[in-house]
Amino acid sequence: QVKLPCRRNYVQWTNSSRVLDRWTDHEVLKDWIRERIALFQPDRVHICDGTEKEFQDLITLQIHLGSMIQLNPELRPNSYVVRSDKEDVARLEHKTFICSDSAAEAGPTNNWQDPLDTTNRMNTLFENSMRGRTMYVIPFCMGPLDSDMSYIGVQITDSPYVVTSMKIMTRMGLAVLQKLGTDGDFVPCIHSVGHPLVRGQVDSPWPSNPQKQVVHFPEQRRIWSFGSGYGGNALLGKKCFALRIASAIAREEGWLAEHMLIVGVTNPKGVKKYFAAAFPSACGKTNLSMMAPEIDGWKIECVGDDIAWMRINKKDGRLYAINPEAGFFGVAPGTSYKTNPNAMEGIKKNTIFTNVAITPEGDVWWEGMSKEKPDRLVTWLRTQMTKGDIEDAAHPNARFCAPASQCPVIDPNWENPEGVPISGIIFGGRRSQTVPLVYQARDWQHGTFIGSIMNSETTAAAAGIRGVLRPDPFAMYPFCGYNMADYFSHWLNFASLAPDEKLLPKIFHVNWFKKKSNKFVWPGFGQNIRVLKWIFERTDIENPADGSVVKTPIGYVPTPESIDTSGLDITTEDMKYLLQVDTREWRTEVDIYREFQSKFSKEKFPKRLVHELDLLAKEVAAP
Ligand code: GDP
Ligand code: PGA
Ligand code: MN
Ligand code: MN
């Protein structure tokens, strides 16, 4: 028996002050909430306390509304499946806007709109948009509650799916209101699915609105998202706050907000180092961050799988990183006990799945989870499917949302308020050609250049065509909240914040996705430890030109012998192919980077990066 909250208490909220007073003495926050209530006109308002009971009540509500399905508790306790609308399955980059004061501040990689016009236009969209619904207020903290590196946000939403997902992905509830106190700063985030209900109207299992848009105001540090319920567009703590708004804050305050996993690597001698790695969406971050290493004696522990906030620690002058999130919102397809056993263990319970298929036993399934497709399935499109059907049972961007604490290899320091010291930064992308398995930058400036020239083949994480090569510098193309030319300058200048450049992480680039005859040549996944081992050892070496590397036009590439391939079934010829630097191919790359650089205004674009490109062009020029 489900108890629905009573239907008639929006009158209660015309006199909401007293009710709000019970929750907080933060006058700015209360005023903001009252103004939103007046605009959205919800039937009910619910301030989230973040308790387990609240979570369970909202799960029950979603099941009752028909928007969530409970999985078989014997197979997957406290776990649920939600299927979205066909048009609401990924981030919408063409509907994501950076509304800085001027278009120049947003830069050529962002969609810009005038902040005032947009505010007015969106106010019209938001007017009465929560009629017939409950407005939830979610106080959330990005980063451990006791960390100086954390920031607070408050998200208003009319989606219980968002509330339950935010409960997994962030620290949220009363403790955050307490931390906020009476005058703490917070980033106000508003979200509505844009689907008001009139009395008696039956709700859709995935309410949404065709006029989807995700809008950021970096100067005012606020986020407005309308019409979409999909994770990246609706869980505003994640991409919108922790990357787009945070990157703008980080630039002002002298730190880095990056699209990076954080991983601890321990060698057989027991020496431990942490690495941060930026790969574009659906290019292997979650997998690398919790990988089960395939060589003996090495250990991997996960701090974060998607976002890193990093600053120079005053105590020792090194770069420290925290994971601002508390959960994993990971790509399901391709995840299996073979490829990512730790993710599989981490999603055995307490997990919300989106757009996966359901088995007759009441468990989940997706492409790549097992070799054999189950005989019968209900697809993410809610259709029946039998084994012979060739369409996808799960959407290629189907996701799991699970608490980080459940990951069997979660790092003991994952909630350390100081963060963890970073020894190396690794860039990477999905490149079927040209880019070698791994190489190292000569220094910080060259490393920044390597980050700036990243290109990657598009994936299902964003709406649009897949497999098209596009620039994705630092894996931040869709997430940088300001002009990327300034972002590059920020990275270049960041070196001067460290007391000694030697204390800064070494910089590397990897590519797991090089193909021959349309097949991946490198085995990937747990075998990537072989590359991490090389990187790990390189971070001990003072002079990058030392040891068993080949100096190439793009940086230091390992000699084929220096990558440990013992016990691995790979030919010398394939290793050569994986590590080769073909100057002819790199001439084409240079053209791509020139074209990318030419999109920026000459005054803004850092000369040091133009210089690095000139150098590369000269080195790969035809003899
Ligand atoms: P993220 O979105 O960057 O976190 O990427 P994921 O780790 O979720 O991986 C995205 C997709 O790439 C999944 O389908 C993975 O199975 C696949 N993938 C991850 N790592 C590798 C790898 O080393 N090699 C290959 N071939 N595929 C990988
Ligand atoms: P991903 O996260 O990087 O794990 O794919 C979501 C996204 O970037 O859209
Ligand atoms: Mn991501
Ligand atoms: Mn991921």
From TrEMBL:
Protein name: phosphoenolpyruvate carboxykinase (GTP)
PROSITE patterns linked: PEPCK_GTP (PS00505)
Domain of life per record: Eukaryota
UniProt entry keywords in alphabetical sequence: Decarboxylase, Gluconeogenesis, GTP-binding, Kinase, Lyase, Manganese, Metal-binding, Nucleotide-binding, Pyruvate, Transferase
Assembly notes: Monomer.
NCBIfam families associated with the record: PRK04210.1 (NF003253)
Cofactors, names only: Mn(2+)
GO cellular component term of the entry, any: cytosol
Family (UniProt): Belongs to the phosphoenolpyruvate carboxykinase [GTP] family.
GO biological process, one term: response to starvation
Claim: Metal-binding is one of the keywords in the record: yes
Location of the Phosphoenolpyruvate carboxykinase GTP-utilising N-terminal domain: 31-251
Enzyme Commission numbers on file: 4.1.1.32
InterPro entries to which the protein is assigned, alphabetical: PEP_carboxykin_GTP_CS, PEP_carboxykinase_C, PEP_carboxykinase_GTP, PEP_carboxykinase_GTP_C, PEP_carboxykinase_GTP_N, PEP_carboxykinase_N
Pathway: Carbohydrate biosynthesis; gluconeogenesis
One Gene Ontology term of the molecular function aspect: phosphoenolpyruvate carboxykinase (GTP) activity
Residues in Phosphoenolpyruvate carboxykinase C-terminal P-loop domain copies: 255-617
HAMAP family recorded: PEPCK_GTP (MF_00452)
